[in-house]
Design a protein that fits this description.
Order of helices and strands: EHEHEEEEHEEEHEEHEEHEEEEHH
Strand content: 15-25%
Low-confidence stretches: 1-5, 358-399
Number of strands: 17
CATH superfamily of the largest domain: NAD(P)-binding Rossmann-like Domain
Length: 399
């Protein structure tokens, strides 16, 4: 019998960098997942408290004054206590003491099944791990694309990359509706902490060793290959590169695609994307309301900061060469939206593992207080007002 109120998935975050912090902020806007433990490497707890309260990209937390450190050295948030660890050896972590069931592995270092499984040591460990990066051997799951391939026997799964989470849902809709002959993708990607501020050395390639602030840097990406992991019918049909640009956050997929079925216009191409985003497309795709949206405003990258969708198709920047060849532009907040997908995946795993509803639609985050910072909202159109409300909720984590 399915409970009338679903229990909460209890999560531990290992690694408190960009994705770990964004996932923690995102969790505060939800009632279906709860972060109960964090493993960090901050030099001291006051420093940890500082980075929880303040962020140069996502702004000051509206709960800045609601966080504190307890006498026992844990994090206090409102009436909740969040267990804090500072342990570099995952086998020494006592996740079980905080009742952690799912670990979000966000260090970027433990990306194999063998490494991530160290979080699941009997007695002290968690039950499952979601890797917040691509993995060579873990099952890759992208919410809205192949989520149903998860089963409870899987202990470690990968949430792929932020770029794959943008590209794969888009490719899924196009493939199902029109068929894809081939696709060539460029991700115009925001800079990341792995890059150098000034010229240095990179283990990956020479270009990535150059200073991020003064260069546009072409490099490689595994996103096009990863799409083929979650959409096997596209094997051999996708390739792509990445171009790193000097912005802090929000990236863009530039996809040139050749379709099997001729399409009369850009709007005809966009129609199934709009339908999927509205939850009306049908069972073959399911609802993608929390994953895809189509934006009709002429916006720029910073306008998408805090959006929860993984793939925001830009209708004005999408162009047609002929009935089968299109260039499609899709934006994504490579930090926040990706972190929300990590939590969505954990929630779905929880539902499958506990025999709750499988659900085709990811559970949306629940606002607990009115949207702040939008006093001028009544002057906007209803469409823009809804978009602003979504952005403010996403960016500032109103609980």
């Amino acid at each position: 019998m399915v409970p009338s109120v679903d229990p909460v998935a209890l999560v531990g975050i290992n690694g408190f960098g960009r994705i770990g912090r964004a996932a923690f902020r995102a969790s505060l806007a939800r009632d279906d997942v709860k972060v109960v433990a964090i493993n960090h490497t901050a030099p001291d707890l006051s420093y940890l408290l500082h980075v929880i309260r303040y962020d140069s990209t996502h702004g000051t937390s509206p709960y800045a004054n609601e966080f504190s450190i307890t006498e026992s050295g844990d994090l206090k948030f409102l009436d909740r206590t969040i267990k804090l660890f500072s342990e570099r050896d995952p086998e020494q972590l006592d996740w079980a003491s905080a009742e952690v069931e799912y670990v979000l592995e966000a260090t970027g270092k433990m990306t194999t099944v063998e490494a991530a499984s160290r979080h699941c040591k009997p007695g002290k460990g968690a039950k499952k791990v979601v890797i917040s990066s691509p993995s060579k051997d873990a099952k890759t799951i992208v919410v809205g694309v192949n989520r149903r391939e998860y089963d409870s026997s899987m202990q470690v799964v990968s949430n792929a990359s932020c770029t794959t989470n943008c590209l794969a849902p888009l490719a899924k809709v196009l493939q199902r509706c029109f068929g894809i002959e081939y696709g060539m993708m460029t991700t115009v990607h925001a800079s990341t902490s792995s890059q150098h501020i000034l010229d240095g050395y990179s283990k990956k390639n020479r270009r990535l060793g150059r200073g991020v602030g003064s260069n546009i840097i072409p490099t490689t990406t595994g996103a096009a290959t990863a799409v083929q992991l979650v959409l096997p019918e596209l094997t051999g049909k996708f390739t792509g590169i990445s171009v790193r640009v000097p912005v802090n956050n929000v990236s863009m997929v530039d996809l040139t695609v050749s379709l099997t079925t001729p399409v009369a216009s850009v709007e005809e191409l966009l129609k199934p994307l709009r339908e999927a985003a509205a939850g009306r497309y049908g069972s073959s795709l399911g609802s993608l309301t929390t994953v895809i949206c189509v934006d009709d405003d002429e916006l720029v990258s910073s306008d998408f900061l805090g959006y929860q969708q993984s793939c925001i198709v830009d209708s004005h920047a999408t162009v047609q060469l002929n009935p089968t060849t299109f260039k499609i532009i899709a934006w994504y907040d490579n930090e926040y939206a990706y972190s929300v997908r990590c939590l969505d995946l954990i929630r779905y795993m929880f539902e499958v593992d506990h025999g709750l509803r499988g659900g085709e639609t990811p559970t949306a985050s629940r606002p607990i207080s009115p949207v702040q910072g939008a006093a001028h909202i009544d002057a906007l159109t209803a469409d823009k007002a809804a978009r602003l409300a979504q952005r403010v909720q996403g960016q500032f984590m109103l609980a």
